[in-house]
UniProtKB/TrEMBL annotation:
InterPro entries: AUF1-like, F-box-like_dom_sf. This is F-box domain containing protein. It comes from the Eukaryota.
């Protein structure tokens, strides 16, 4: 007697809903991801994602720390620790460890055993980004600011560059603290916005000059280091290089990037940075500025910088554009500080290129 035949239903094939999504929608999602490390992981998932990741328009690169190119563990520099004083003097011979780490064990999506990024330790940031061939908006965040300051001191700067400096604004203060409770701050002796005589004699002016030069050096160094990234990504329309401390921001728009590619950079003879052109500066000062949220800024200083006519590349901004850049340089309470300082008396200074 034959055993009873059993009838088995064919297994139901599961539908991969992700495969049903059109490429345009997946690409929209990937553009929202932005983070280069997360995109790097997506790159290794499948052939389809590999092809789409390379088409991403918006990329965000966050640098947590750097490691010496030779891979020596003792050469590790943890930039999340107290602020390094010479990050840019070492930047050209360091690699971006936490950016490249997600790519370390990647294999080529065609199934071969060849690593996607051979000789990982020799790759620069520009090489990491080379697989993103359609980047339009790139934002890079360094782990800390470049200019060392004492505790409690405020120093923020924002610079706009083409092939050379176009605009720069610096906001500083000797101390940021809470407003006095139960009373108002005593008004300054001068009510017309003038600087007190002590500003010239107690080193106040000298300190502001140091802030200005240090910020310009930091900006020009960042600008110089971006040249390989800009030249390797002709689709770039917006580039921002900032830091986790929010101290300094270098920005370049579509017009600036195009002008950067068309003109040769003027490198400084003394270091790996772009030469700072001769500049005109407008300095405004207030002994005390109240900020929103119950805070106050002492020794508040605003410095607006633009190249002098002989130091510019023919793209000298008009007064309205320059003022618009100053007003829009900072957000939050610092925007209020800028508006307050703009009402103060202006002191004109000139600076030679360096």
């Amino acid at each position: 007697m034959h055993p009873k035949a059993r009838i088995h239903a064919d297994p139901v094939r599961e539908v991969d809903h992700f495969d049903c999504l059109p490429d345009s929608l997946v690409l929209l999602i990937l553009n929202k991801v932005e983070d280069v490390r997360s995109l790097g992981r997506c790159y290794a998932v499948s052939k389809r994602l590999c092809g789409l990741v390379s088409l991403v328009h918006d990329v965000y690169v966050k640098i947590d720390r750097v490691v010496a190119v030779d891979g020596d563990a003792e050469g590790t520099l943890n930039l999340s620790s107290p602020k390094p004083r010479s990050i840019f003097s070492h930047f050209l011979r360091l690699m971006l460890f936490t950016i490249i780490k997600p790519f370390h064990n990647m294999r080529s999506p065609n199934g071969t055993a060849r690593p996607l990024f051979p000789q990982l330790s020799q790759h620069s940031p520009a090489q990491v980004l080379r697989n993103f061939t359609h980047v339009r908006n790139l934002r890079i965040e360094l782990p800390s600011g470049d200019v060392g300051t004492e505790e409690g001191v405020l120093l923020k700067w924002r610079a706009e560059y083409g092939s050379t400096l176009e605009n720069c604004v610096i906001l500083g203060g000797t101390r940021v603290d809470r407003k006095p409770v139960g009373g108002e701050h005593e008004p300054a002796l001068e009510d017309n916005g003038s600087m007190p005589e002590s500003f010239y004699t107690n080193g106040g002016l000298k300190l502001r000059v140091v802030w200005t030069i240090s910020s310009l050096i930091a900006a020009s160094t960042r600008h110089y280091l971006l040249r390989s990234i800009i030249n390797g990504h002709p689709t770039l329309q917006s580039l921002v290089l900032t830091d986790a401390d929010g101290q300094g921001t270098l920005c370049m728009g579509a017009k600036q990037l195009e002008e950067f590619r068309e003109n040769q950079l003027s490198a400084s003879a003394c270091s790996n940075r772009t030469q700072v052109p001769a500049c005109n500066m407008k300095l405004k000062y207030a002994p005390y500025v109240e900020l929103p949220g119950g805070m106050a800024l002492q020794g508040a200083t605003l410095v607006a910088i633009k190249p002098s006519p002989e130091g510019s590349n023919g793209s000298h901004p008009n007064r309205k554009e320059a003022e618009g850049f100053v007003f829009g340089a900072f957000d939050g309470p610092f925007k209020v500080a800028v508006k307050t300082l703009m009402k103060r008396r202006t002191y004109l200074l000139e600076m030679n290129g360096f």
